[in-house]
Amino acid sequence: MNILVYFAKYWWYCLITGALMWGLPHSMSAQDPLWAIGDQQVHFPQELGGFIKVSDLPTSFNDDIPNQYEYQGALAQRTQNVQFDDEGKVLFFIMDGKIYNRDGLLIADEALDREDRNCEVCFLGGEQVHIIPVPGSCTRYFIIGLYFGGFNRDLGDELAMARMGVLDVTLDSDIGAYQDVCIPVKGSFIDNIDLSGQDVYQFTLGSSTNIIPEVGFIGDTGNGVFREGVLHSSLVEQTGPIHGASIRLDQQGNSILAVRVNQGLVLLQAAESGLWMLDNPPGYIGSRWPFDINSSALDTEVTQRGEMALNFDEGTLTVAWSAYYQGPLNDDNGVPIPWVPHQTLVGRWDFQIVGNTPYTVLSNIQPSGSIGQNPRLYSLDLYPATDPPPLDILNDPIQRPAIAGLEFSPNGRYLYFVKSPDYAHPSGGVASNFGFIDMDWTLQDLPLTYHT
After folding, report:
1. How many Cα atoms are found within 13 Å in the side-chain-facing hemisphere of 122?
2. Span 320-335, mean pLDDT?
3. Is 62 in contact with 12 (CB distance < 8 Å)?
4. DSSP state of 38
5. Looking at residue 75, what DSSP letter applies?
6. From the CB of residue 360, how many other CB atoms can be counted at a distance below 10 Å?
7. Is residue 69 classed as helix, strand or coil in its secondary structure?
8. Whether the Cβ atoms of residue 71 and residue 82 lie closer than 8 Å to each other
9. Radius of gyration of the chain measured on its C-alpha atoms
10. 340 pLDDT exceeds 70?
């Protein structure tokens, strides 16, 4: 989950989207009942007609515990997430790489970069952090941080990586500060190596057709608390976005984590046996489903901002992501537009998930312009870049338009979005900053693809 940039926009999006989502029937991919935004938590109702509630995240101000082990309202700088229990209440939450339990007490501290070991439990939240319940367990969770190898964003930063650990909320914390003052604190990462030297949970980023290097153990003492591996490696691509989303597929708790790595998608399965990278399409080297498999899905998004949403229905996984383009473009007649445009887009890709662990992933690729085009891009706005840039409602310069949020309706037909409105770009664009795309729309349909 990304840090929220425009808080006012996100609050509005949160409230509207929550109301829309909970006014529809429930499904496996329904809205989470709890969100973390800044230093607050947003509770969505579990019943029709309920009210959305906002409250502070848990804090601690115990004089017997050093402040660095307590959450006291600090805001995350890169990423945050929250896990809820079966009553929809906070179980634990994450601020950057720091993980706190439901009492606001630290159970894992943050590594500042890949090599940092000046920490007791060195988790690395990176640019995004994801929480996936371990299938078959009521107390364990995969915690997955996504980041680039050098923790920078330049052309030489070619390794897109993940750090994974399994958190058990029933284990006693092994942080010494609590033991020194005899305060029992629950929540600890398990040692992933059993007494026989075998992995408790697999962290498999390769197969016979999809070989990914540099999977290994990391940790203060070289034990198996965390695993780290490479999702994608490229020496030629400019480092772009790395962001993802997960969705539960079945009653057993098997889940898919979709990760956008630069110009392609990586799909991973969270199973009872561990975390598995799923094979890329035949004939493509590397780990990704590349966007250039269908040239219409190309874009030039090169910032770490990005949104993604997933829907799963009867074996079909639909991945939606935000995109952005700035550069030369032709009009509908193929004539070059005489100015450099900004363009905000939403990408959509359908996959078929079959088999057991690890799943087999298929996709019926259809070319641009066909009725069943897959993948495809929906263009939301098109307007010229200006110098100086326009100002937003707070009089801050808008360097580029953005799609700040995506969310599927529970039945998967509609994709809601939040984006930059056209008050900032009077030369063009859609008036509202909130709208939806009808996923059932085809090239034969009228009126427009999306509505605001």
Report:
1. 20
2. 76
3. no
4. T
5. P
6. 11
7. helix
8. no
9. 22
10. no
- Confirm if 39 and 5 have CB atoms less than 8 A apart: no
Q: CA 404 to CA 402: how far, in whole Å?
A: 6
Strands across the sheet containing 434-438? 403-408, 414-419, 434-438, 450-451
Helix residue spans in 49-199 (DSSP H): 176-180
Smallest Cα–Cα separation from 97: which of 70, 129, 73, 66? 129
Helix (H, G, I), strand (E, B) or coil at 191: coil
Nearest to residue 269, comparing CAs of 281, 279, 261, 257?
Answer: 257
- The phi and psi torsions of 168 (rounded to 5 degrees) equal -110, 120
**Which pLDDT belongs to residue 286?**
60
Tokens 């994801």 sit on residue: 130
Q: Which two tokens stand for residue 223?
A: 């034990």
Peptide bond just before 388 cis, omega within 30 deg: yes
Query: In 225-370, at which residue ranges do the beta strands (DSSP E only) sit?
Result: 226-233, 242-248, 255-261, 264-271, 274-277, 289-290, 308-313, 316-326, 341-354, 360-362
The DSSP result for 362-421, as a single string, is E---B-TTSTT-BSEEEEEEEEE--SSPPB-TTS-B-SS--EEEEEE-TTSSEEEEEE--
Q: Which two tokens stand for residue 307?
A: 């949104």
Share of the chain above pLDDT 90, in %: 21
CB distance 267 to 256 below 8 Å: yes
Is there a cis peptide before residue 290, judged by omega within 30 degrees of 0?
no
Tally the residues of the chain.
452
DSSP secondary-structure letter at 443? T
CA atoms of 47 and 413, how far apart (whole Å): 22
Rounded Cα–Cα distance for residues 118 and 298 (Å): 41
Q: CA angle, 276 as apex, 271 and 277 as ends, to 5°?
A: 140
Q: 417-446: per-residue pLDDT in tens?
A: 887 765 444 444 445 577 888 888 765 554
Predicted local confidence at residue 398, as pLDDT: 63
Three-state secondary-structure class, residue 99? strand
Return the amino acid letter for 131: I
Q: Which phi and psi angles does 215 have, rounded to 5°?
A: -95, 125
Structure tokens belonging to residue 144 = 């997955």
CA-CA-CA-CA dihedral for 117, 115, 70, 34, to nearest 10: -140
Mean residue pLDDT of the chain comes to 75
pLDDT at residue 221, rounded to an integer: 38
8 Å CB contact between 57 and 41 = yes
Strand partners, 247: 256
